[in-house]
Amino acid sequence: MTKEEIVEKIDIFLIDEFEVDEDEIKPEANLKEALDLDSLDFVDLVVAVESNFGVKLVGEDFVNVHTLQNFYDLIESKLA
Fold it and tell me: What secondary structure letter does DSSP report for 30?
C-alpha cells in the first residue's frame, strides 16, 4: 500500500466514521484539538485502524503522535 493510499484511507474513515470536517484534515492538524478527538474517539480510532489496515496499535504507539502527519507515518511504519 502506498503512502497516498494510506492517507486517503485514513482521511475517508475520519470523515465517515468520526464526522471530521474535510476542511480540518490537514497533515499539520493536531489530532486532539483540530479534529476534536477525545479519549473515547482514540479508542474508536484504534479499532478503525485495526479493521481498515489489519495492524494493532497500543498506547505507546501514540507517544509521539501529535499531528495527522505523525499518524499517517505511524500507520505506514506499522505496515512496513
Answer: B
- b/e burial code for range 28-58 (CB count within 10 A of at least 16 → b): ebebeebbebeeebbeebbebbeeebeeebe
pTM of the model: 0.90
Domains recognised in the chain with CATH numbers: 3-79 (1.10.1200.10)
Closest CA to 27 of 73, 76, 77: 73
CB within 8 Å of 27: residues ≥ 6 apart: 67, 68, 69, 72
Q: Is 28 helix (H, G, I), strand (E, B) or coil?
A: coil
pLDDT digits (tens, 9 = 90+) for 23-79: 999 999 998 887 787 888 888 889 999 999 999 999 899 899 999 999 999 999 999
